[in-house]
Design goal:
The structure is a single chain. By secondary structure, the chain is an alpha/beta fold. 60% of the residues lie in helices and 9% in strands. It has 14 helices and five strands. Strands 2-1-3-4-5 form a five-stranded parallel sheet, with helices on both faces. β4 (208-213), α12 and β5 (226-229) form a beta-alpha-beta unit. α1 packs antiparallel against α2. It is elongated and about 80 Å long.
């Protein structure tokens, strides 16, 4: 990347007028070049595609595809760029840029989840999800999409995972038979007024309860076996959706990693079955 940047700087200084224009455009739009063609660059700069092609050959590339391959192979890792990215983000947020402020809040959220993933309760959650006979996942109907997605992610690691939407009003799937070493995962939210009653009833029925909830849910430790606390909720996010989605995604990833190769085998089998049944013709 440094070699390419140096060549572009040289052309900006000593190239022909057309070469200087192309070099300047490339230098300022490296991240956008994968979406460009020689013709689109020529149109932007009011040059001929042949002129752009000659310039690319002078750089040592056979067309714009060659430079795209170079950019892909030499792209700096996100990890190496992270300090600079965070510094710029903090600067922009302090200057009142709304998008920077929002992204900074997301970074804080991910830091909270990363720290949580190193705590004993996270490891307990992973091991309990894997060791329980049945796993039930439930949430408020507003978060049913997130709950079903989490259920689907867990299916890549184990059998007997069911999402309960509470549509029948009875949760008969949960309370209609003995617990038999079952686990109830409750995705709590301000709208889910039944979550406390569900947790208490499940505990009394013999289920273990894994509760994903806010930091200041007073009844959490009384009616759950394991509590995973969400990051602090910002004023403009009533349901804290980003935090819920991120926590559940990384929890499902941790479960799959704990299973190891078995999860990869199940994933391949699931894809095979989807390919077999998803597009089955109508009879």
């Amino acid at each position: 990347m440094e070699d390419l940047s140096q060549k572009l700087r040289q052309y900006i200084k000593i190239g022909t007028p057309a070469e200087r224009r192309i070099a300047k455009y490339f230098s300022e739009h490296l991240n956008e070049l994968p979406f460009e063609t020689a013709s689109s660059v020529a149109d932007r700069l009011e040059l001929s595609p042949m002129t752009v092609g000659r310039f690319l050959r002078s750089l040592g590339y056979h067309g714009l595809d060659g430079i795209k391959v170079h950019l892909k192979e030499n792209a700096p890792s996100v990890t190496s760029q992270l300090p600079n990215i965070l510094e710029q983000l903090q600067k922009d947020a302090s200057e009142g840029h709304p998008l920077a402020t929002q992204i900074a809040e997301l970074v804080e959220m991910l830091q909270h989840i990363y720290k949580l993933a190193g705590q004993p309760q996270w490891r307990d959650a992973v091991s309990t999800i894997l060791s329980s006979g049945n796993v039930f996942v439930t949430s408020h109907p507003n978060l049913a999409g997130i709950g079903r997605y989490f259920r689907d992610r867990l299916i890549f690691a184990r059998d007997q995972v069911l999402f309960l939407d509470g549509a029948n009003g009875s949760y008969i799937e949960l309370f209609g038979k003995p617990a038999e070493d079952g686990l109830l995962v409750i995705i709590d939210s301000p709208s889910f007024v039944a979550s406390r009653l569900l947790a208490r009833s499940a505990r009394r029925a013999g289920y273990k309860v894994l509760l994903v909830t806010g930091q200041f849910t007073e009844w959490a430790h009384e009616f759950s076996n394991i509590t995973l606390s969400l990051p602090p909720q910002h004023a403009n996010s009533r349901e804290n959706l980003s935090a819920i989605m991120a926590l559940l995604e990384y929890l499902a990833t941790s479960v799959a990693q704990a299973v190891g190769e078995t999860a990869e085998t199940r994933a391949r089998r699931i894809e095979e079955l989807r390919g077999m049944f998803a597009q089955a013709p109508l009879r």
